[in-house]
Model the fold of this input.
Amino acid sequence: MFTGLGDERVYEYCRGKGIPIMLEIPFSTRIAELYSKGIPFVEEMPGWKESLKQVFEEAKRAAGK
Amino acid sequence: MKQITVLSGKGGTGKTTIVASFTVLAGKCVVADCDVDAPDLHLLLNPQVQEEDFRGSKLATIDSEKCIRCGLCKKSCRFNAISDEFKVNPFACECCGVCTIVCPKKAIELKDRISGQVYTSKTLYGYMVYALLYPGESNSGKLVSLVRQKARTLSARKKSDIVLIDGAPGIGCPVIASVTGADAGLIVTEPTVSGVHDLVRALELLAHFNILPMVLINKYDLNVEKSEEIIEFCHNMNVNVVGKIPFDRLVTEAMVNGRPIVEYAPESSVAKELRRIWDKVHSIVKEGG
Done:
């Protein structure tokens, strides 16, 4: 989920439905700029690679694969 | 009556934000949300529904009393829509009717079902037609055509001279249905590799259907270089770039509050640019004959 631009509604909805929020990525102009050039932000911004890998692993586990 | 379709190719470039603002600026107009798979213009325009209608489709239905479980229908179905228990999977059935023909006991019939809802409504700014395709249903193009037909009728009845059409992302069936016969197609793009890639495809689509193209660059300052590229590309293709809008958190803020930006922050630079762009689009379309 991308955060920092909206309000609480998505959190409330997910909480109500029991849907886990696996990762929050704060809005960043840097990410938007990288995307505009076609560069995955994980390549350029340290730290995010690990968190996204973790989400991927968790999602795989949740899906039972 | 002039029909203007707003499309983008790529999703998330700002179509709905722009259509909502144009609706406010156009005054007496009819707006049609043709993104029937994920409509959300109504969230910004708060329409009061005046009339409901639905689009029907068909579904093969097996009468288990008459069925002798011979398996001919299952074997003949190209869509694998009939299960071993001789039940029809409604999401797989394309209602081609082959099963009704091959069944030796005439146990299968094509029955009506509802695949989407269409709403005719009134907003603070004029009139609006929108629809909601039920999950898993196909044929969104036909639902789009129904929305447009209702919008045209309403526009004629209310003597409005503009029909604004909020298209779906992509260039497939529902988008084709939302541009066919329009007087102009305004492509909202953004300065990103995918934005540009999909802009080219959307331009090809408009050229194919011989619809006057216009381009608006949204969030242009996220990559000024790419924006320049788009302007030059359009210039070479003889396509009118009607304006460029800067990235502004106010736009998201207006969206979060469920209001069109020109009304939420009328003095913002985005709102000012949108007013200028609308005047330009309006005059180009009017001059079109």
